[in-house]
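request received
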Amino acid sequence: MIPEIGHFALILALLLALVQASLPLVGSFIGNRLWMASARPLAYGQALFLTIAFAALVQVFLADDFSVIYAASNSNSLLPPVYKVSAVWGAHEGSLLLWALFLGLWAAAVAAFSRALPLAMVARTLAVLGMVSIGFLLFMLLTSNPFERLFPVPPDGRDLNPLLQDPGLAIHPPMLYMGYVGFSVAFALAIAALIGGKLDAAWARWSRPWTTIAWTFLTIGIVLGSWWAYYELGWGGWWFWDPVENASLMPWIVGTALLHSLAVTEKRGAFKSWTVLLALSAFSLSLLGTFLVRSGVLTSVHAFATDPTRGVFILAFLGVVIGGSLALYAWRAPAVSGGGRFTLVSRESFLLANNLLLVLLTLLVLLGTLAPLIYEAMSWGKISVGFPWFNKMFLGVTPFVALALGVGVLARWKQDEPARLARQLALAAALSAAVLLVSFWPPFSHGALWVPVGLALAAWVLFSHLTSLYERLRHKTRLGGGLLADLTGHSRSYYGMLIAHLGVAVFIVGLTMLSNFQIEKDLRMAPGDRTEVAGYQFLFEGSGPVKGPNYDAQRGRVLVFDGDRQVAVLTPEKRTYLASSQTMTEAAIDAGLLRDVYVSLGEPLAGGAWSLRIYYKPYVRWIWLGGLLMAIGGVLAVTDRRYRTATQAASVPSAGAVAKA
Amino acid sequence: MSQSRAKKTLKFLIPLGLFVVLVGFLGYGLTTDPRKVPSPLIGKSIPDFTLPTLADPDRQVTQEALKGTVSLVNVWASWCPSCRAEHRMLMGIAQEGIDDLQIVGLNWKDERPQAQDMLRLFGNPYVVNLFDPDNQVGLDFGVYGAPETFVIDRHGIIRYKHIGPVDAEVWEQTLRPLVQQLKAQS
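response:
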């Protein structure tokens, strides 16, 4: 009964989406206010039915209803309840439902928080979101129905992939999807603005908070995914340039470019057609990522179910959504005026430079991801693009991003005097040069050139931003009011920017230190054996059996000493999951701000010995800390007072209208 | 004037053009098999593993079973039709009784009873079968699908990977000469 309710709710949501995609849009052309106004209730209704459908699927999993194929293949009665819930989005069908739910919720949020927008704009935006929703709901109902039944009913489910039975991965996909789907709002607003022919500062102002929220979710999602890969896959790596990872990275980079470009369009009216293109691209790349992951065009370690009919459907959907939007762009964008002019030495120039660099980086990632496909299609032979290529491209582009970042934050809008800018940057430049020289010192850098370069770039970003903060506070204190007043006032978005950019510096330090100084050792250890890695002594005490809720495990004990002082007891596990008899490696990590000590069990050897992986990972936390700082910056930016007051201001005109009446 | 406008419009068509090219590649990608990516493991040592055998769940086999002699590691499953087609060829190779060559099965993403039934019905060309229902070892070997056949020398180095069923042509043209060559090396 419950699965049928879910199925029915999905169909109703699709019907509402069909109306939402057409009625308000037509209304906006013929000026029918009632039709336009129907967009909001339709969006609420769709969100409601999608919530019902999703709740039904959760209930199916919690109740161990294995008559539903999707539950039978991805859950098990022994699974802890938390993972029964996260198993809902553990595979293809459920992931799609979560996508569709989030799309519905974003649309409802747009409906609720768009009082300040003209009705026609709201109608068009929600209509576009309705169109995207139609695609996803049709895809689900036609090729990937999560509520399909199974007969005969199996006695138990096949279990959730043990890799996914982890708190990090339970919340990683929802964060990621919130980000992907969130870009649909910026996309829909851009389409609505293109249709209306009004790409102005107001459009940019509406788009900014939505884009920032989506970007923040995506940032958190990517950080969680990277952190999960690090401790769960047992290899100690944090990024693999896997197609699935790249699929999330591309919208993130373009989203980053979009955030900055929107700021320029709002403040200076420049880059309009460029900004709108980025808004279309960010969501298009999210859809492309879905296609790459779901169609089986590329192989990936994430190895999701692949099915050619699904691939054809998504490709057609991509063609309509992306092709249609780019065609609209080619038609309407040429009419857009150039907007605010600026000179070579201005904040606009440096923002534009970084925008172009970020887009270049996205294109390189896209090229690398699709290279095997392109080579084969052109019959140039086979190729597999791996780690070294991506790393080289990344290292070739990002240092320039960091350089321009430091200049851009201090440059003035429109036109700046080179001499003034140079004076302000002098201190940051001198300090970075000092860092460069000191860290070049061979006993520290071991001759690795990237160490001084990386640390100097981080110093450059840090000190140029500190200079900016200093200049700002100097001005403010002259005008009265201190840091606290500044923080609580209009400029929370300024501090958001500062913290996010500090995240960039932190990330660079982590990346530099980790990739140049990490130590990885694989060795055989019998109980009682000692070894030394990176100045720490490791004593392997042996292993013994332990029982988990749905697995049996061998748990090893490794004591870690720094000199005579014991710093950690690490208990890595090798788990065998009962339902699938799959084995999993649970690494044990002694985490620290400056270094992680990472131990995982390899294979059991004769005489109670094990092959052990002992890793020393300096500054690895800084990589994720950098990402989190960026996300915190995003949160600060959207809670800036002008967005809070915007919702209040929205109610003023209607009050005035009442008074007039 | 109108010419410069046309030029300007052209510029805005670039994203659409790029996307059309992209769709072309993606569409092509749907018609082909991504499995044909060359295995990065060729020339590398076989990954370490411990798996139960198909015949006896209590008997564990490790990578050592693939050393000391030339091995064909055949990835198969009872649900895979081309594996059945290939099976007769494997039986033929096994019956030839080539010295210093063992055929090892990697029973992949399969169910134990069905796999055992298939061997009872069609014969068993394998000296031993590793039972890997969850693609645990298959993943380490870079298995994309069944059937696949790896040629491994006596030091446990992967020398060749054939994707798809082994038929008489593949065996005579490629695999047999390679096996002879590897046997000649010490």
